[in-house]
Write a structure and sequence with these properties.
By secondary structure, the chain is an alpha/beta fold. It contains eleven helices and nine strands. The chain is globular and about 55 Å long. Bound molecules: adenosine monophosphate.
Length: about 280
């Protein structure tokens, strides 16, 4: 597996693969890789001849006061995980390689997809995501790209962007990978101290409660949201940003459990903002 830092090197590698008629999968990440990322890489390796993993903490998707500087980084560990999983190329650019100093083009999206849920408190987040993912799509030009259901709104945003901008790329959504006790794996879990780590289980408990209600036939989305909210509020270290039912494809809020419903939450545990969700498919 090669580790490269420039756009040109990625292009040359991919060009050589294409000459051999090989297919290419892309797994975009911000690094500090864990089993969640690995599940995406494993799937990409199974479905493509060559796999590119991008490892880039993208500054344009972080707002003022967010954790851009403190975001955990460990390239050598990431490289080890990618190599073992069978990736062919690890792309780890510096911000200056990805963004010219006078860059002034962004990919923006209007409407509920980017203004609901995380978009309410992170107004520039999805513009940064759409921009960097478009750039990666143009740099790698993969056949398929892999994204986790953990970031369900992001997955819906990327699917819409690919449709709207005619990217010839198949978007593959992958299930949430959890710790044994239920906590969704996240690079940000490293911010939690031991007390907060225990308190963070309230997210997966609320997800389990909501899912059980939906599967038992509860059609009132507001009732499910209320139960989940109650569950989270019982944990003193947790502070809700949002718990909300939306259409999983459009991110438009819903009050009836008409599938596909995305039941999504963002919750601060101490100072750490965690997300979790489930999709009710009927
Ligand atoms: P990140 O490095 O957090 O930007 O995540 C990179 C990709 O990995 C995104 O598509 C995430 O949705 C996905 N991902 C992160 N955590 C998980 C998880 N626990 N299970 C499945 N996918 C995940």
């Amino acid at each position: 597996m090669k580790i490269v830092k420039t756009v040109e090197e990625v292009r040359q590698e991919v060009k050589a693969w294409r000459k051999e008629g090989l297919t290419v999968g892309l797994v975009p990440t911000m690094g500090f890789l864990h089993e969640g990322h690995k599940s995406l890489i494993d799937r990409a390796v199974a479905e493509n001849d060559r796999v590119v993993v991008s490892d880039f903490v993208n500054p344009t998707q972080f707002g003022a006061g967010e954790d851009l500087e403190s975001y955990p980084r460990d390239l050598s560990r990431d490289a080890e995980l990618c190599r073992e999983a069978g990736a062919s190329l690890l792309f780890n650019p510096e911000p200056e390689e990805m963004y010219a100093q006078d860059a002034c083009t962004m990919v923006d999206m209007s409407g509920d997809l980017t203004t609901e849920l995380c978009g309410r408190t992170r107004p520039i987040h999805f513009r940064g995501v759409c921009t960097v993912v478009s750039k990666l799509f143009n740099i790698v030009a993969p056949d398929r790209a892999y994204f986790g259901q953990k970031d369900a709104q992001q997955l819906a945003v990327i699917r819409r962007m690919v449709r709207d901008l005619n990217f010839d790329i198949e978007i593959v959504g992958c299930p949430i990978i959890r710790e044994e006790d239920g906590l969704a794996k996240s690079s940000r879990n490293t911010y939690l101290n031991s007390e907060e780590r225990k308190a963070a289980l309230v997210l997966s408990r609320a997800v389990a409660k909501g899912r059980a209600m939906a599967e038992a036939g509860e059609k009132d989305a507001d009732k499910i949201v209320a139960e989940m909210t109650d569950c989270i509020n019982q944990e003193p270290l947790a502070r809700i940003d949002y718990v909300k039912a939306v259409n999983a494809e459009t991110i438009v809020p819903v009050s009836v459990m008409e599938p596909p419903v995305l039941m999504a939450m963002a919750v601060y545990v101490g100072k750490t903002r965690l997300i979790d969700n489930f999709i009710y498919k009927g």
